[in-house]
Amino acid sequence: MSIPVKQIITLRRPCTPAPQASETGAERWSVDAIEALFELPFPELMHRAQLVHRENFDPTRIEFATLLSVKTGGCAEDCGYCPQAARYDTGVEASKLMDTADVLAAARLAQAAGATRFCMGAAWRSPKERDIEKVAELVRGVKALGLETCATLGMLEDGQAQTLQSAGLDYYNHNLDSAPDFYGDIVSTRQYQDRLDTLARVRSAGVKVCCGGIVGMGETRRQRAGLVAELANLTPYPESVPINNLVKVPGTPLADQPDLDLFEFVRTIAVARITMPTARVRLSAGRQQMGDGVQALCFLAGANSIFYGDKLLTTGNPDTEADVALLERLGMTRSAPAAAAT
Ligand code: SAM
Ligand code: DTB
Ligand code: SF4
Questions:
Q1: How is 225-239 classified by DSSP, letter by letter?
Q2: Read out DSSP for 152-189?
Q3: Is there a catalytic annotation at residue 130?
Q4: Of the residues 7, 150, 269, 338, which has the fewest C-beta atoms closer than 10 A?
Q5: Is 150 considered catalytic here?
Q6: In this model, does residue 22 exceed pLDDT 80?
Q7: Distance 184 CA to ligand 1 centre (A)
Q8: pTM for the whole thing?
Q9: Beta bridge partners of 243
């Protein structure tokens, strides 16, 4: 007697890892449950991620965010992945904070090319008061163009996030980057708790949180699950979750790190989608080394945002023409621009 196909599918479906309710009623993901997602057969994981994605987003639409390094290099921190740390010989030259007119010219170009979010990055451990005043001016200018604004400036003190919020900052990017038990292998000049403290200040100032991490730094799968658990258990979880594949820059301690299996990168995207259903999951650094096929798999896994523009902060990114062509080949479109500012 033959078994109906529907029954076979049900029989083969592995158990479904899920979050648990905490004492406060908020859902909490255990590292075990997230690791169990990573362990699912690839088709099962992709199917679950797609179900969650379609419940919350149009799966054919991708957000285009453009990055600009407004203050490059010369950073005092020792992040092992970063070409902008002054202590590594990476060929990145340190420069001062850009003039407002130059930043606004770049923002106008990004907008004309189709970006809807403009993210300004600065290679600071933490900004000084006068830096915050200058960045607030940049934020006001970019916001007035009708773009969503994002900044990533390092650790913030009390009151700094509030100043940025008043200037019109929509998002603050501050990544946890790895699991707590791996962080010390990658960065020694600050603690994981410092990152969490800044994220709390950003939240309480009413700025939306953009927070993700890097994979491919030599962490274990359980540590990738640990990173996702930290992100998913932030209350609330971040509105934007950038997932970066390590860009191996000569001169940094991680320059010779072996490649991560790209299916493991796709799995990380899928797990982020499942655990943070309404977040924008951004397929971030590393696209140039990935190829179109893997990028398409990331979109199927639930990524719905990319950095759009020929450069990230100091390293390369696919050409804008290539990104437009890729979406067209996939029958996908970019997300509509945010409503113009009044
Ligand atoms: N200095 C600020 C900070 O560390 O938060 C803002 C800029 S920092 C360059 C922003 C993020 O870029 C880092 O948290 C990390 O996730 C990412 N990043 C830096 N170098 C990278 C690399 N080589 N590959 C992938 N992501 C990288
Ligand atoms: C994020 O998560 N990735 C972006 C953005 N946030 C600031 C930065 C990627 C940087 C890659 C290395 C570089 O270009 O210097
Ligand atoms: Fe500095 Fe940020 Fe680079 Fe770390 S990641 S070295 S804090 S610019």
A1: HHHHHHHHTSSSPPS
A2: E-S---TTHHHHHHHHT--EEE---BS-HHHHHHH--S
A3: no
A4: 7
A5: yes
A6: no
A7: 16
A8: 0.94
A9: 213, 283
E strands, the chain, in order: 20-21, 27-28, 61-71, 117-122, 148-152, 171-173, 208-210, 213-215, 240-245, 280-283, 305-307, 333-334
Q: What is the mean pLDDT of residues 188-207?
A: 98
What is the maximum alpha-carbon separation in the chain? 78
Instruction: Tell me what the mean pLDDT of segment 156-177 comes to.
Output: 97
Catalytic residue (one of 48, 75, 224, 280): 75
Contact between residue 303 and residue 52 where contact means Cβ atoms under 8 Å apart: no
Q: What's the first-to-final CA gap in the chain, in angstroms? A: 68
Spatial separation of the C-alpha atoms in residues 177 and 300, rounded to whole Å: 23
Cα dihedral across residues 263, 264, 269, 270: positive or negative = positive
282 is catalytic: yes
For residue range 83-101, what is the model confidence (pLDDT) as tens digits? Answer: 999 999 999 999 999 999 9
Do the strands 117-122 and 213-215 form a parallel or antiparallel pair, or are they unpaired? Answer: unpaired
Element (H, E) at 316: none
pLDDT band at 72 (very low <50, low <70, confident <90, very high): very high
What's the whole-number average pLDDT of the chain? 93
Q: Does residue 9 have a pLDDT over 80?
A: no
